[in-house]
Amino acid sequence: MNNPWELDHYREELVSVDIGASQPQQLFLSVRGPPRTSPEQPVAIIECGAAATTRWWTIVQRLLCPTLRVYCYDRAGLGRSGPAVVFPRTASSMAFEMEKLFETVGVKPRFILIAHSYGAIIAREFLARLPNPTQSVVGMVFVESNQEKTHQELMVSSHISTSLGGLNSLVATGLHEDHQYSEAEVEAILKYESGTTTNISDKPSAAISELESMESSERALADREQLQKHILSPNPITVMRGDITRDLRRLFKTSGAAAAGNSTTIP
């Protein structure tokens, strides 16, 4: 094994990926962690949430990399990747690009998939593309993840977002201060996110397309009946969730304060 993507302790690069379109797709990929010394050694892949980027995951990579090799990439049109070549940005099309990215850099299964929010829909579409899912993916971690019925049953009422006005949800929940990022990491995140998180019309076109395709992608995944077929059994699955009750309480309080003319976050 002499592949730098499997051996270098730290590497990041813009990768040119042939996705069968009129031009290659440029995707930013980073990896941290110990060298992969055997094809049987699992490596982790992080799939970010809707319109999110690798910068959100720097802490997780840093904490995991002493013992686990961790890959994270920016989807097309987001972060440090090039503009998206293919539209619409459905979960299925993004899973295809993810597959081609790792084929291009020569990183093969076995994988541990770590998926956040809408990234879980993409990761599960990626899982569906694998000829032997249980051999290729030895485990999955779902972090506050979407599933087939997220938009049908679990979405926050639109009046909360409306009442927040232009206030960023991270500010409204206090998560803009309650974190473990360094100042430089926060600055890098905010530099990219500034002006793109409060209004869909402000987002890059790829991000808009991701958001517009979420519900149809969830329905398409439901048609695969992965849950009924136990597609990953007997491999382990971990589900992680935050304190949604606390966050909703903060959102309600902050939206109430905003409606009263006071934008101060209420703890």
From TrEMBL:
Keyword Iron: no
InterPro entries tied to this protein: AB_hydrolase, AB_hydrolase_1, AB_hydrolase_fold
UniProt entry keywords in alphabetical sequence: Hydrolase
Alphabetical list of Pfam families matching this protein: Abhydrolase_6
SUPFAM superfamilies: alpha/beta-Hydrolases
Keyword Hydrolase (UniProt): yes
Membrane-spanning parts: none
One Gene Ontology term of the molecular function aspect: hydrolase activity
Ranges where the AB hydrolase-1 domain occurs: 52-155
Superkingdom of origin organism: Eukaryota
Designated name of the protein: Alpha/beta hydrolase fold-1
Organism: Fusarium austroafricanum
